[in-house]
Amino acid sequence: VFWRDSSKKGSYKNTNAKLGEHRNKTFLCATRTSCFGKNSIAAGTSAGDLVLFNEKEATKSQLKMHEKGLNAIWSAQDLGTLVTGGKDGRIIVWAVEKDDLTKTSVFEASKSPIRSVCLAMSGGTIKKVLVGTQTCDIIEFSRSDGFKTEEKNKELSKVEPNVILRGHYAGELWGLATHPSRPEYCTVGDDKCLRIWSVEKM
After folding, report:
1. Cα pseudo-dihedral 19, 67, 96, 119, rounded to 10
2. CB proximity list for 136: less than 8 A, separation 6 or greater
3. What's the Cα-to-Cα distance from 152 to each of 102, 149, 158, rounded to whole Å?
4. Which of 60, 27, 51, 53 is nearest to 38 (CA)?
5. Which of 35, 163, 183, 184 is the most buried (most CB within 10 A)?
6. What is the pTM of this model?
7. Which of 35, 30, 33 has the alpha carbon at shortest distance from 17?
8. What digits encode the pLDDT tens for the residues 34-59?
9. 8 A C-beta contact, residue 143 and residue 120
10. Torsion sign over Cα 143, 148, 153, 157
11. CA Rg value for the chain
């Protein structure tokens, strides 16, 4: 469903997109992008497919971009760059040229599904990729070449993670205990994880 401003202030009108062969697919995420033309929408499905829409209907698809669901998409409008994150825990950086997609970097960001992804840009170059996971981790990745080149003969790129935040992610938090002498405490919860925290580094 596409929503647009209506003639009435503060209200919107909707249009149902024509899905065609994709009508039985489950869509998990979408973003507006100019990489494929004005007013295009890129959407990800539970099968790992990328589907492109114009203002009315699905126009093109790229199947199995991720082995499992495609959960997150970020578009760098001016660079012709698309970044996707999947249930497979991988991040893929794509170069877009004349509606064609080419992988420029693939790396495993997490053992758990990716739920969100965005870029930090500087001078027309990707400086960092910021990733949010289903297990409540926020992880930052950077590479000196701006994620522009893929290492030959290797399936995954070497990208060092910088974990910004970790947390519990399922159900309730059931236990908390402080260390008797060090500035630390631990927590446990329904996610079956025990996490040790530093008071000084928070």
Report:
1. 110
2. 165, 166, 167, 168, 169
3. 14, 9, 12
4. 53
5. 35
6. 0.79
7. 30
8. 777 777 888 999 999 999 888 778 88
9. no
10. positive
11. 20
* pLDDT of the residue at 76: 80
- CB 7: neighbour CB atoms within 10 A? 6
What is the pLDDT, as a whole number, of residue 15? 79
The CA distance from 104 to 83, in Å, is: 10
The two structure tokens encoding residue 53: 């829409």
Q: What is the pLDDT of residues 91-103, one digit of tens each?
A: 998 888 777 788 8
Residue in the structure block whose two tokens are 């829409």: 53
Tokens encoding 60? 């093109």
Tokens of 149: 């080149």
- pLDDT per residue as tens digits for the range 104-150: 888 888 888 999 999 887 777 788 889 999 988 999 988 776 676 55
Residue written as tokens 């009108």? 13
Evaluate whether 137 touches 113 at the Cβ level (below 8 Å).
no
For residue 120, give both structure tokens: 């930090």
